[in-house]
Amino acid sequence: MSANKLDPMSSTSQKHNDFVAEPMGDKPVTALPGIGEILGGRLKEKGFGKAYNVLGNFLALNRDEKRFRDWLKDTCQASSEQQSDCYGCLKDWCANNL
């Protein structure tokens, strides 16, 4: 079995793999790894109801991990693990689709 070429030390969730493998489309923000119903609700309240809204902010922050993670923490009180899951997914999605 081949190792994850992006980060051999981590394994990704099925949610991550599914998200990265598909077009962005009109997915709800809760389709993003690390973003469940509670964080999704907080993001929706701030105008980030779709995964592409969060992707847009990720790109606007120049894909910078620290800035994006800080934004998630400030915007919806995401934990460090949730920030990491969401950042990693968007990073991998961009690598596969942009």
From TrEMBL:
Q: Where is this region: Disordered?
A: 1-25
Keyword tags? Nucleus
- Residue ranges with Polar residues bias: 1-14
**Subcellular location as annotated:** Nucleus
Give the matching InterPro entries.
BAF, BAF_prot, BAF_sf
A GO cellular component annotation in the UniProt record: nucleus
Under what name is this protein listed?
Barrier-to-autointegration factor
Which GO terms of type biological process are on file? Answer: chromosome organization
Q: Which GO terms describe its molecular function?
A: DNA binding
Q: According to the UniProt entry, where is the signal peptide?
A: none
